[in-house]
Every structure is written in structure tokens, then in C-alpha cells.
Give the backbone structure.
Amino acid sequence: MDRRTVPQKIMLLAAVLATVGFVAFPLLWMLSSSLMPYDELFGRRLRLLPTAPTLGHYADLLERTRFPEYFRNSAIVAALATVGAIVCATLAGYGLTRFRFPGKRAISGAVLFTYMFPPILMAIPLFVMLKQVGLTNNLFGLALAHISFAMPLAMWLSAIFFRAIPIELDEAAMIDGASRLGALWRVILPVAAPGLVAIAVFVFVLSWNDYLFSLILMVAEAKKTLPVGVAGFQDATSVEWGLIMAGGVLITVPVMLGFMLVQRWLIAGLGAGAVKE
Amino acid sequence: MSATVGTNLGEGPRRLPRRIATLTRGRREAATGLLFVLPSLLLLATFAIYPLLSSLWLSLHRRHIFARAGEFVGIDNFIVLLADPTFWSALGNGLIFSLSTVVLQLVLGVATALLLSQAFRGRGLVRGIVLFPFVVPTVVAVLVWKWMLNDLYGVVNLLLIETGLVRESVLWLASPSLAMATVVGINVWMFFPFITIHVLARMQLIPGTLYEAARIDGAGPLQRFWYVTLPQLRSTILIVVLIRGIWMFNKFDAVWLITEGGPLGTTQTLPLLAYLRAFGQYQLGSGAAVATLIFLILAVGGAFYLRLLREDRET
């Protein structure tokens, strides 16, 4: 591959560095800001790294704000949503790939269709609905909203993963006397596990990152999740950017860890809009 | 997609005449299959299909957010909306926002994919890093950019002043003439990796022999891109543009969090208007009407685009 001339090599290197800088700088800046003491943050002098790094903002975040509460709420909602979505999606993926039934095409079509709904279109009636049954300001209610929001993606990915598992495996298990569910539980699930873990991560991240549904459904301060709660830090009379940046770092860490866990599936999932949509 | 089960599994009554046996088997199979899909379908029906219909219904009512029921007003909400300049400016803003973000994402996304398809050391790592903006939660990305663009202490302004490019801080978000451009810029940063991923994945499927042939015919790098790469990427790009277009037109959080539609409504798009009508002015019916219009615009636009796509494929 060394057909490149020296200027070409330099140009390539420059382009790569520029790209990396463009995508990574804001995140590094967040990290750096979260460690800067007040006088450096608001010093009006350009400083790339904290000269006297401090964990003060993180301590403040945990002691002086409701961040721990938001964190707990987010974790509970995301966990509920993940479990709910993964159970339904597993069954659906199995059903869609193992059986023939009328309307299957229509189902796949409907899934893609719901995927294209404007979230705001779903959010308004969802609010009315959940309010009627007393599930606004309720972690379980928000989890339900997240499940339905994540369901099309989860079902779709699940069908892809199950399709890749040869049907002979089911047949072998059932010839050996396993029931349908037995075959699914003992033979197919272990094979499908990596794919299901990937779906779980995607659903978790969707729920963890959601802003719109949380904004609308969780009005009580004690029920807010991280995105809405931390964004609310901006409303303070003097905006504490150090605090906000520390919060940003802590929100991002679980997401990054999750994605590292499922690197192999990242492209398929992201391609299907697993994160921001 | 179509999986055949049941023919050699010994399920179903064996002694029945063959035709009936297959029929019952078929029905049982269908029933079992549906049973597996049922929980998901119920969820989708309750929390996606029903809200859609209920939104359409709600848009025909005047209903205060704290009221138990609404009053049927027919298409009044729509008539009022279509006579309201706020609606038209939100539609205009939305079109500017989604068209410009999609075009810029496409340019940046494809350029980055081309760069990352070159062979260089550490390419895998760089490919991972390029996903960062897309993977970071929207709230976090927005807050970081707002901090970087802060007029008093933001690193961007300090950098511009220090290097002498500007004398006074640029009001990235507070100035009505700049706010939309800033919002577009931040959104392009967040979402271009989506296009990079897709294009890169598709590029890997382009047979190397095509490039060899082009090279033998004396094509330079630009010509190879124009006559080999681009035609191969065509269908991927068309689909990705459709998806991104829809999603950008629907985008709420990544606009609301940056400006809440301000200053002076210059960044207020339709989803923001729907939210403000429903939860700012407590008029659920009016909000639902805006949401319904978003959906209709997307449905019509999407159908039109798909039609173009099909014609394009046939010729």
C-alpha cells in the first residue's frame, strides 16, 4: 500500500487528525472542564487543561444536587424497559422466524411504519393515556413508554438474529423430546444470547438517553431522569458549567461501557437507529 | 424469512387425511406463531397504533390539559393553525433545518467514509472514535456544545478572540441570524456518523476489480470516485437520505435543548410547536393537530420520494 508519495501521506495524516479532533474534542473538553476549578472555568483565558485539577464538581454533584436521585430513576426505568423489551422481542423474533402465519408480512411492515412515527405524535396521546390510569410521574409508566418506543427496533433486530440460527437446531431439540418453549429456552437462547445482549444494550441506551418522553411524563422533581434533570441545571441563576460537565461525563460513561460490550453488533444496531432516534 | 417447520417434526394428528392434516397443522402453526408475537403486538397496538389514532381524534377536539374530556370542534384546530403565521414559520424553519442538516451530514458523512476507507495505521481505532458524536447522549452533546459556544467563557469564542479572528464574542445562540446555523451545525456533528457507517459498510462491498479496471483505463482518483464509487453508493445514499430526512424533520430534543425555539422563534420547528401548544399552552388538541400535520407532511413527502426512488431504479 505504500504507493503514496510523501505529500500524499502528510495530507492523509492531516485529514485523519482533523477528523479525530473534530469528533473527539468536544468530549475531551467536557472531561477537562469537569475537572477545572471555578477560577479556571470562568477565567476568560483560554486554557485547554486544568492546571489544578479538582474533583470538586463531582463531589458537589453527588452531595448538593438531586443527581443521585435522577441517576437512580434513570437506572430503574432503563432496567425495567430493557427487561420488558427483551422478553417481548425474543418471543417475537422467534415467532416471526419459526412459524408461518397470515399477516406476517403486514407485521414486519407495521413495525417499520411505527418506526417512522413522529415521537411527538406518540407523546401527546401517551401522556393523556398514562395520566388517565395514574401512570404519569411513575417510573413504571415511563418504562412502558420506552418499551413501546424501542419495540420496533428490538423486534426487528431480534428477527435478524433469530433468522441467522439454523432451524435444524430447533428440530434436533424437539426430536430429542423438548417442547417448543423448552427448545427455545435451552437450545436456541444460548445461541442467540450475544445478539440479545446487543438488543438489551440498545434498549437500555434508548431509555437512558430519552429526553422527550421523560420531559412530558415526569414533571415531579423526585421522578425526573438524568437527561431532563441535568438539562435543568441550566435554569439556575448562575449556570454551573463545571457541575453540568461532570454530570455529562457520568451520564456518558454507562453508555460507552455498554457499547464496548457489544462492539460486534454496534454497526447493525446503530444502522437501525439504535441510539438517537 | 420464510421458515418451514412442522413437516417432519411429527406434530399434528398423523392419521387424518393428508389435506386436512396439513390444514390443521398450518392453523396450529399459525396460532403458535401468533402467540409468540402477541406480547409485542399488544405493546405496539397499545402504545403506538392506539396513540396514533388517538392523536388524530384528539386533533379534532379542543381539550385543556387538565380537563377530563374535550369538546369536539371538527377541523377547527387545523383551520386556526393554517391561518397562523407561527405555523408557517415553524414549517419553514423545519424545512431549512432538515434539508440543510441532511445535506451537510451527507457531504461530511461520505467524505469521512472515503477517508476511513483508505489504508492507514490505527484505522480501526479511528473508525471507532468517529462514532463518538452519534453514541453520546443528545443531552450531553448539546450541553457540551452550549458550554463551548458560551459567549463569555466558551472555548470557541476565546479561541477566536485569542487568534484575532474576531474582536468580540460571537453570540452563536442568542443572535437571531446565527442561531439556526448553530443549531444545524451541532446537529450535523451529532448525526453525520450515521451516514459514515452506512456508506463505509456499502463501500466494502464494491469489488476491487472495478477500481483496477478504472485505473487501467487511466482514471484518476476523482474520476474513480465519480464513475465507480458514487454510482455504487447511489442506492445506499438515497435510502439513508430518506431516513435521516424523516428523523431530522421529527427532531425535538436536539433543537429544543439548544434554543427552546428561540431567539424570536427563529429555530422553532414543527415538533417544538406541537410540544409548546400541548404542554406550554395546555392545548392538547392544538398540539395533536400540529403533530398530525407533521405526520401527514412526512407521509406525503415520503411517498413522493419513494416513488422517485422506484422510477430511478426502473430507468
